[in-house]
Amino acid sequence: MGKPTLRQQAYARILDMIETGECPMGSVTSEIRLGRRLDMSRTPVRAALQQLELEGYVRIASKHGVLILDSSSQRVGDLLELIASMALFAVGAASPAEQDTLRAWSHGMMDTYRALSGGEPEDCGALAAFEYELLNGLILRCNNSEMAKAFQTYASRLFWHRNVARWQAPHAVRTRVQVAKLIEAVAAGPEPFRMALLDYVHMLKLTWR
Questions:
Q1: Which of 14, 52, 166, 168 has the fewest CB atoms found within 10 Å of its own CB?
Q2: Residue-wise pLDDT tens digits, 97-120
Q3: How many CB atoms are closer than 10 A to CB 56?
Q4: Position 96 confidence tier, pLDDT thresholds 50, 70, 90
Q5: Is residue 196 included in any domain, yes or no?
Q6: Are 131 and 179 within 8 A, CB to CB?
Q7: From residue 61, how far is each of 31, 40, 178 by CA, in Å?
Q8: pLDDT digits (tens, 9 = 90+) for 166-205
Q9: Same domain, 11 and 98
Q10: CB 155 within 8 A of CB 83
Q11: How far is 133 from 137, CA to CA, in rounded Å?
């Protein structure tokens, strides 16, 4: 694999600045300022910003600068629904021969979850990362690279690893229960999984920030 282009480098760096809060959501910046911070000309920075605008991270306003977009409830809900659809497809598409493998995978994830959620105090970041790996693992079972890439993109747009309110009071107990039910439902088949997934996504929508 060749060296990333300047546009790719600018894209990766600006996205990292957004995800880490170095460029806070709701703030305004400019091509010139970003170029100075990245020590790059405006051309690769502009190309990177255009890609980020297409992906919903920023809005470029001519003569006004670059707005770092916040996550609206509609946008969050849409992305969570897309992720849920992919997870449901992954479980529903499993052949009878794959069911035993899926059940074994579910049991292994439950063991990991119990170990994580039994700690005091609980590590909210580690639990959010576990949820990510749970959903990612299901979607990877489809052996569809485009679907896997889409999940990673949607989770990135949601700032998945930074959104941990559901693992904090007053939501923590409900979240623990919902995630446990979701893992158990993976082994129970498509319809039980669909019902558990609906409850889980509803909980995410209510607690996402």
A1: 168
A2: 888 999 999 999 999 999 998 776
A3: 15
A4: confident
A5: yes
A6: yes
A7: 11, 21, 41
A8: 999 999 999 999 999 999 999 999 999 999 999 999 999 9
A9: no
A10: yes
A11: 6
- The secondary structure of 7-19, three-state, reads HHHHHHHHHHHHH
Q: In this structure, what CATH number is given to the domain that contains residue 111? A: 1.20.120.530
Do the Cβ atoms of 29 and 127 come closer than 8 Å?
no
Instruction: Characterize 77-98 residue by residue with b for buried, 16 or more Cβ atoms within 10 angstroms of its Cβ, and e for exposed.
Output: eebbeebbebbbbbbeebeeee
- Give Cβ neighbours of residue 204 (< 8 Å, ≥ 6 apart): 80, 166
Which residues face 134 on adjacent strands?
none
Residues of the chain above pLDDT 70, percent = 97
The string of pLDDT tens digits covering residues 113-153 is 999 987 766 799 999 999 999 999 999 999 999 999 999 98
Residue 176 and residue 190 share a domain: yes
The residue segments making up the domain with residue 159 are 73-207
Query: CB-based contacts of 114: which residues, under 8 Å, 6+ apart?
Result: none
- Residue 52 has which token pair? 């980020």
